[in-house]
Write the structure tokens for this entry.
Amino acid sequence: QKEVEQNSGPLSVPEGAIASLNCTYSDRGSQSFFWYRQYSGKSPELIMFIYSNGDKEDGRFTAQLNKASQYVSLLIRDSQPSDSATYLCAVIYFGNEKLTFGTGTRLTIIP
Amino acid sequence: EADIYQTPRYLVIGTGKKITLECSQTMGHDKMYWYQQDPGMELHLIHYSYGVNSTEKGDLSSESTVSRIRTEHFPLTLESARPSHTSQYLCASSEWGGNEKLFFGSGTQLSVL
């Protein structure tokens, strides 16, 4: 089993709707959680990070963390065509300062 | 403006050639990383460094080598390129205690013929 799992998609969402991206991870000794966005042919860029259980909001983005169930989600409200990209979930585990990335979910916003 | 730079952006080279991919950052970050990514695939960590004179191999075995003589510079070298080395190489950096908020360069797309 992979340490960080994401549905590869593609996930298609109508413009203006809420896009929900999910990520599960295998180890309870995890510490920090990150969402990176990667446009086709471009490098990843950090859009959200979350350390504690619960929700964290930043503009149209909300990260949700549930450590007991070992999942982290990213919600994108009022989806725009410019949100079409691959979203990478990444986790840091205790005792290991390197990020472990998931394979990413490809999101397409349909105008 | 603080940033992270990679050169060249694209490189097409013949088998057996020695190549060096350059990466420099102006953010004063101690930690630097090299990732390899094939199209539509996940990122694989191949090398990282926690500071000057520190280099470690990553999770994915790689025939490349790295050096960290200066904080801002983290070049990756392939002594003898092969077609299996064809891939996108991404350099990244982060602060100490930054909880791995990585900043990525634009990448080098390497094609070995």
About this structure: The interface with chain A takes residues 33, 41-43, 45, 48, 58-59, 90, 99-107 of chain B (CB under 8 Å). DSSP finds no helices and eleven strands in chain B. The mean pLDDT of chain B is 91.
